[in-house]
Amino acid sequence: MPTLPADQRTAHAHLKLDGVFAGYGAAPVIRDIDLCVAEREVVAVVGPNGAGKSTLLKTVLGVLAPTEGTITLGGRSIGGERTDRIARLGVGYVPQVRDVFDTLTVTENLEMGGYQLKPREVSARIAEVMELYPQLAGMRTRYAGHLSGGERKMLAVGRVLMARPSLLVVDEPTAGLSPQLAHELLHTQITRLAQSLGVAVLLVEQHAREALAVSDWAYLMVSGEVQVSEPAGDLLARPDIGQLFLGSSASVLQPSGDARQDPEIAGSAGPPALGRPSP
Fold first, then answer.
1. DSSP structural state of residue 190
2. How much is the pTM?
C-alpha cells in the first residue's frame, strides 16, 4: 500500500499517541510511546510476548489512563476518557475472543452494534454490512454460536461497523482461524476496511509476517517500548528482523499456518462499551 512519509503521517494523524506511559501500578508497562494512525491506513503493532501490546490497546480504548503523555483522536484529547465516551467519539473495537453474542442471531448481533442508532437507521446500516459481507445475508436467523470461526469474525467486524467508527482497533483477528481464513481476513477484509470505507485501522496481530504484508506502517514493540517505527514493508524486508525481536522471531514471525497466541493479549479484558459482549 502507498505510505505517507513519517512527517506527513504525523501531520495527518487521526489517532496520535505522544510520549504515553501507562501501566497497572507505580512502574509503567509501556513507556514513551509515540504512535499515529492516519485515515485509510492500516497500522500494525507487532512484537514478542510481553512486549506491552495489550497494555497499549487498553490505554487507547480507555481501560487504562495514561500516567504521562497525550492521546488524541481527530485532534481531540481522549486520554483517560471513559470507554463509552471513547466509543461514542468513533472508536470501534474487535476483541480477540468473546467477539459475538453466541445466543443471538446474526441480525440480533448487528442490531446490538447499532444500539445507539435511531430505530429507522438500524435496517439501513444492517443492509450496508450485508453488502460488505454478503456471506452473512443468508445467515440472518442463524445463531452466532453456530457460525464457523471465519463467519464469527465477519459478524464481529460487521457489528462494530454498525456504528461507523472512524478508528477500528482489531485485536488478534486471526486467532483460532485456519491458515486460509487468516490470510483472507487480513489480505481482503482488513485492507478493504481502510481502502474502501476510509477507516483508520490499528491492528495487533500474532502472525507478524501476515500483518506486515497488509499494513502501511508498523511499530515493533519490545519490553514496553517502540523499538522500530517504519513502513511495514521495510520492516518485513529487514535482514535483522529476528534480532529485533530479541530472539523471539522463531515463534512470532511464523507464517499463518503455525498459529501462536500472545498470552498477554489473550488474557486482556476489553470494555463492553466498545463492542465486547458480556459473558
1. I
2. 0.84
Query: Could you tell me how many residues make up the chain?
Result: 279
The answer to whether the beta carbons of residues 205 and 44 sit under 8 Å apart is yes
> One-letter amino acid identity for 251?
S
Instruction: Taking the CA atoms of 188, 190, 191 and 196 in sequence, report the sign of the dihedral they define.
Output: positive
If you search the block for the grid coordinates 507464517, which residue do you land on? 255
Residue 245 to residues 219, 223, 253: CA-CA distances in angstroms?
Answer: 12, 10, 9
Nearest C-alpha neighbor of 182 from the set 155, 224, 211: 211
The pLDDT tens digits for 126-184 are: 999 999 999 999 999 999 999 998 899 999 999 999 999 999 999 999 988 888 888 88
What would the pLDDT profile of 23-69 be if each residue is shown by its tens digit?
998 889 999 999 999 999 999 999 988 899 999 999 999 999 999 99
CB 46 within 8 A of CB 220: yes
Domains of the chain, each with CATH number or no CATH? 6-268 (3.40.50.300)
β-bridge pairing 225-231 and 167-171? unpaired
Rg for the chain, CA atoms, rounded: 18
Q: For the chain, where are the alpha helices, taking DSSP H only?
A: 6-11, 53-61, 83-88, 106-113, 119-132, 149-161, 179-184, 191-197, 208-214, 232-237, 241-244, 249-252, 263-266
Specify the amino acid at residue 47. Answer: G
Q: Which of 87, 91, 110 is nearest to 201 (CA)?
A: 91
Other CB atoms within 10 Å distance of the CB of residue 148: 11
Which residues does 11 contact at the CB level (< 8 Å), separation at least 6? Answer: none
